[in-house]
Structures are given as structure tokens and as C-alpha cells.
TrEMBL record, chains A, B:
Biased composition (Low complexity): 382-397
SUPFAM superfamilies: FAD-linked reductases, C-terminal domain, FAD/NAD(P)-binding domain
Name of the protein in question: glycine oxidase
The keyword Ubl conjugation is annotated on this UniProt entry: no
InterPro entries assigned to the protein according to its UniProt record, in alphabetical order: FAD-dep_OxRdtase, FAD/NAD-bd_sf, Gly_oxidase_ThiO
First-tier enzyme category under EC: oxidoreductase
Domain FAD dependent oxidoreductase: 7-357
């Protein structure tokens, strides 16, 4: 029984999966998204900074190019998702707590400028004119006009609404369904099988638990604590720009929303705990207050911890998977029917339009050579042979029929 | 129609109201408790320290006597409530952050000792032997054996279970029902009237909104932020005693529970905000870490803010209300059918058995002369005349019949 359920199955309904699904749907494809709880993973915690410039890290040139590419795509993507997604062209203000923090920003700026990125030093007087509630004792300020923001929870809601409830299967994908030579869809935890010509694995860290993948994905959880706070009327607006600070070498950000709330975050923990860290909350509040003392006046209404899907080089695992030597392939040497899109780490929200665009290209048979460096087998270089996958395929035989 | 619904109506199902109701029920009286959401006020936030000794404040001698009296009643009260209420005879360890904090504890101790209270200085070595995770740089430690703890949420659940669901009316009392000369029960927001021989007003700050009271109650909200955290296995037990600290003059406490969680609190805000204060959370985490650095390792799973019912002298408003001159009274000069029990401020959980005992005495016609100083009219001394109350009584005429 080879009945096709959809043209494309996307596993994972975080911002990446939904962005890919939306782009595929707009191209006229029938799309099904599979996720037991859409938008409840890293997207639920994310602050939504579109920080191609300020998130640049040394020696991540290819990733930077991809981030800048995605930032350029954002306005059109946001327009297609609808005004409800909370896209704002808020500028970003980088603030240094002390002289060493200022030097760190200045050093980074010289490399950012070498890459053609616009990072403008401000006098503290200029910074304070823009943001009157800044702390008195800051050491330096830089403005980045190009780094904007979106509200990831509103983005998830907007994309789900665009796709329509009929496109969403609220269940967990247990394994890829193989027909021997190609990926044919997924088998759900409850035994149901969904079939499609193409399957996109975009479920972040969940990809580790998806059986039947032909390649090992070196994902690791990097936890972050994120605070959501309400700004009382007496201190509104707390800030108008997104504030990114370094305070004694520790990063912290304050993202102001249209609704009078702010998001504060920036912890990175690899301690294996998905609970909110008391020490993390303490440091965020301490460092945010060092930049904007009135943070003490805010109402803390939510603390969230989530894991981001980290990779060894901080770049995504994005593309098709090369077929093992001597095995059937799609003409370009890859396993037919399978696309991987995970490992977006700190940049999932920013990279959503670019990931969606790359995946649409792959669905159309076009692999953009600029992003070949993100191929998902780059750390393993060995695709699992057919025999190994067949075991998974057999145990993945449909039980509940075709949905 | 004077059909009696119950012997006693208790307005308010926090620990105070439930304690009074339970004591009255145990004496054989038919009791009805009226509260739209039992246990959701200050009792929901409270840490449950039974801190008669360590909560002593200068010049609050009569309150101290009442607190010590209540601490003595606690074991028997806890036994009657059942083992589920989480009463523990955990000792209390007072820790000084710096020399000034130590001096503050030492000064207080000399007065505590003059009142016959046992506060024992410990060497830091002794303190560390008891609690290995204490910070290295503390300035002093004192042990108070007599200050124990209970879990207020479990206490609420235990008392509700003892009383039985049929004794609880989940609705808001809008006003006292008067029959002209005496309080005859309450009228609910939905118009239903409940009648009883005696009505006890024990709804904390809610008493301000109860119409028809013959006396003005000078209650004000004093907000507190309370954190609940889980202790990971690697740092268990975080502490075995209740830790009360002074850190640069600021109080903070850490109450360890049997289930591997701790409660951290001690903020007092009069800023009118019932939202969790970011600055409050920051200071609690900062000061708790100053005493026990491993607090940084904990998982923050709940932040709660609630208001305690404060009074001008920090003592409760507890007793019957004198009748106005020339008006009918109960033989002892008081308004018949009415008892007030609110304003327990920081001490509601500790004072629950004593409040229950006092109210039972009043129901039996016995006013303990030791607690006359807590009479609810002590700040006003003028009881509202009958005519004024009659207006309230008329507008409080039963609409929905007798329940």
C-alpha cells in the first residue's frame, strides 16, 4: 500500500519546522507537520532576536553569511506569515559593563566591520538620550541597526494558523518509514504511518530519538534560562531598543515587546537539567540590573528553561544525506525522500526563513552550493548501510494503516 | 425566617479560618466555611515557619507571649489535623552574613533570653558540622531548637479533608447579615444568605471588602515574594535545619521540606503590587546564596507573591466587637453573633492554633483576659451605630433564600 498522504511531511513544529512547512505549502505542495506539542520546545523559550550581526562569533564566517542571508529574507517572510507574528525592526544596542567588556565589543566590531557589517559606536550620552533608564556607570555602547526581533510564540501561532489545523498531526514520530531504497514517510508512536514523497526532519533535539535515520546527528542540548517580565506603567518604556550587554564578560539581553513586557535571557548551560536554574535566574537579574537598574521594578511572570540543539561547530545540520556507496540514490548521490534541518542552536528563529528557503530549493531539486558546508553528514561522513536501516524499516512496518 | 444553617459560619478558608473551623467542629458545632478559593491567599505563599522565638521583634511583648503560647499548642493541633499537614520539629539556625548582622542577632538574643527564650550561640565549626553546605565566610550562628515548621498547603488540604467538602461553601461573602440587633450570618455575592448563631470573620485582607462590619479594620497589604525550589540529588540535603539569615541587614530564610524542596523568602513590600518582584527575587537568591552557595544549583519551579494582612502594631485583630453605647449586646457588652480574627500579618501559620483556641473560648462565652489587647476595635474605639449598619442590613436582605 503506497498511498501518498502528502507531498511533504515535516517532523517538528517549532519555528524551523513550521517555517519549512509554510514555505513548502506556499509553493503549492500538500504538507503535513507532525509534532505532539507544536511550539513547545526551544521556540517556546526563545526571545526572538534576529541578531545576524551581534550574534557573530569569531571564525564562524559561513554561518555569518547564512545569518545575514536570512536576516535579508526576514521582512518578506514575516509579511507572508502575517502581521500577527510580531516582527519589529527594533534596533539593537550593545552595552559594555566595564572596560574589558567594551574592549571585547570593540575587538568583535573590527571583525564585524571587516565583513561589511555596520556596528556604530555611540557615546554614552547618545546611548542615554535613546534609552534614559540606562545605568550610570556603563563603559561603552554600540548600535546595530540591522538586528531586529520577532515574537517566536506569535510566529508559531501565525504559521499554524496559515497552515491550518488539518495540516498538523499532533503525535510523535517514532521512526522514518523506509521502503528499502528511499524514505517514504514516518511511523508514529501509536503505529500509524504517514507517507509522503519527501520527509523533512526538523524536530531539533528530538531528531536524536527518531529511529531509522541513515546518519548519526551529533546534537547536544545547550540549556538556557529565559525570564519574561511585565514593565509597570511607571517605568515604561524600560528600553526601546533590544539591549545586549556584556557584564564582566557575561552576556545578557533585554528584548522589549510591543505589549509592555520584556524578555531577559542568555544563559548557556550544558548541565543536563531542563529545569530553571536558580543560579541562572540570579545572574540574569543581576546583570540585567547592571545595565538597566529599573529591571528591579519589573514583575517576573514567567521563568522558562529549554534546550537548544547544539552542534560541534555551532552551525546547522541542513541538507540531504549522501547515500552509502553502491546504494540507490536520487541522482545527486543522496538518499531519496529525506531532508535534514536541525541543529540551529542559538539561531533557530533568525535562520527560519533561510532554512525554509534552502529546503524549498531541495524539494525542487536545487542545492545551493553556498550552504553545502552545512550538510548533515559532515561530522560522520559515513552513511549507515541499507542492511542496518532495514532492521529499523521492518520494525517500522505500519500497524494502524495509512492515515 | 430565622432558619439556622449552622452553628458557626467562618468567613475565609486560609489557615486561620480553617483552624478556627476545625476547632469549632471538634467541639461538636456544625460549621460552614465560606471562601471562593480555599487556601489561595497568603496561606498559599507562606513558608510555614513556626518561629515564635526567631520572629520576636522588639517591644512586641504581648504578641510574643501569644506566639509562644501558640507554639506550645502546635504539636497537639498538628496531631488533630493529621500527619498529612507536614508538621516537623526541624530546628532553626540563625546565620549572620557579617559582623553587623551578628551583632543584630546578639542584641536580639539578649532580649529573647530576658523573656526566657532559648537561643544558643554556635561556633561556625559547630554550625558547619550540622550543615556542611554553609558558606565559608559567615560571621556568626545561633541555634533555636523551639522554632519548627509546617507545610501550609498541606495543612490547608488536611483541614479541608477533616472538615469535609459539605462544610465548605465556595463563594465570596459580600456582607454580614444583620437582624437588627445581632449578626445573623452572611450574604453571598450571588445573593444567597447563610445563617448561623455565630459568624467569624477570618478572611485576612478580604475583611476590608466585607460590608456591614460594625468596626473599621485597619488592615494593609504587606506583599512578599516566595520562591520554591527543588534540590538536585547531588546537593541533598541542602540544609537540614530551617536557615534564617541576616545578610547586610536583610532577612532571608531557607526552609527545607521532607520532599527535597526548599522554600526561600522574606521580602516585605508595601508597593501595592501583587505581582512577583524581579528585584525581590534577585535579592532573595543573592542573600540565600550568601548563606548557602549551593542555592545556585537549585531548580526554581515556582515564584509566588501574596499579601499578608498587616496591622498598625503587627498584632492580630482578634475578639468580639464592643457594642455601641445604648445598643443591644451579648451580656459582656459586645455585638452578638460576631467574632473577628484577622490581621495575623507574618504570623498566621504560627498563630493558627492559638487563634482557633481563642475563638473556641469566645464561642463558649469565655474571653481569655491575656489576649484582650488584640481586640479588633483597639485602633478605632468607636463602634458604628445601629442606624448605619441597618442600611447595610437592608441592602443585604436575602434574595436567593436560605441555603
Amino acid at each position: 500500500m503506497e498511498e501518498v498522504h502528502a507531498d511533504v511531511i515535516v517532523v517538528g513544529a517549532g519555528v524551523i519546522g513550521l517555517g519549512i512547512a509554510w514555505e513548502a505549502a506556499r509553493s503549492g505542495r500538500r504538507v503535513t507537520v507532525v509534532d505532539p506539542a507544536p511550539g513547545s520546545g526551544a521556540s517556546f523559550a526563545a526571545a526572538g532576536m534576529l541578531a545576524a550581526v551581534s550574534e557573530y562569533h569569531y571564525q564562524e564566517e559561513q554561518l555569518l553569511e547564512f545569518m545575514v542571508h536570512s536576516a535579508v529574507l526576514w521582512p518578506a517572510f514575516a509579511a507572508s506569515a502575517g502581521p500577527g507574528c510580531g516582527y519589529l525592526s527594533t534596533p539593537t544596542l550593545c552595552l559594555a559593563g566595564d572596560a574589558a567588556d567594551r574592549q571585547a565589543f570593540a575587538d568583535l566590531r573590527s571583525v564585524q566591520q571587516a565583513h561589511g557589517l555596520d556596528v556604530r559606536p555611540l557615546t554614552l550620552r547618545e546611548a542615554r538620550t535613546r534609552e534614559p533608564l540606562l545605568a550610570p556607570a556603563l563603559a561603552g555602547a554600540f548600535e546595530i541597526e540591522a538586528d531586529h526581533q520577532v515574537d517566536p510564540r506569535r510566529l508559531v501561532a501565525a504559521l499554524l494558523a496559515r497552515l491550518g489545523e488539518e495540516s498538523v498531526v499532533r503525535a510523535r514520530a517514532a521512526r522514518l518509514a523506509w521502503d528499502g531504497r528511499r524514505v517514504a514517510g514516518v511511523v508514529l508512536e501509536d503505529g500509524r504511518e504517514l507517507r509522503a514523497a519527501e520527509t523533512v526532519v526538523a524536530n531539533g533535539l528530538g531528531a536524536r530519538d527518531l529511529a531509522g535515520l541513515p546518519v548519526s546527528l551529533p546534537l547536544r542540548p545547550v540549556y538556557g534560562d529565559v525570564l519574561r517580565l511585565r514593565v509597570p506603567a511607571r517605568v515604561r518604556p524600560l528600553v526601546t531598543a533590544t539591549v545586549r550587554g556584556l557584564v564582566r564578560g557575561r552576556p545578557v539581553y533585554i528584548v522589549p515587546r510591543e505589549d509592555g513586557t520584556v524578555v531577559i535571557g542568555a544563559t548557556q548551560r550544558e548541565d543536563g537539567s531542563d529545569a530553571v536554574s536558580a543560579g541562572g535566574v540570579y545572574e540574569l537579574l543581576r546583570d540585567a540590573q547592571a545595565l538597566v537598574p529599573a529591571v528591579a521594578e519589573l514583575e517576573l511572570y514567567e521563568t522558562t528553561a529549554r534546550a537548544r540543539p547544539g552542534t560541534p561547530d555551532n552551525a546547522p545540520l541542513l541538507g540531504r544525506v549522501p547515500a552509502a556507496a553502491g546504494e540507490p540514490h536520487d541522482g545527486a548521490g543522496c538518499v531519496p525522500g529525506l531532508i535534514v534541518a536541525t541543529g540551529f542552536f542559538r539561531h533557530g528563529v533568525l535562520l527560519t526563513p533561510a532554512a525554509a528557503s534552502v529546503c524549498l530549493g531541495l524539494l525542487e531539486g536545487v542545492a545551493d552550493p553556498r550552504w553545502q558546508g552545512f550538510r548533515p553528514d559532515r561530522f560522520t561522513r559515513t552513511t549507515r548501510p541499507l542492511a542496518e536501516r532495514s532492521a529499523a524499516a521492518r520494525s517500522a512496518a505500519p500497524q494502524g494503516g495509512i492515515r
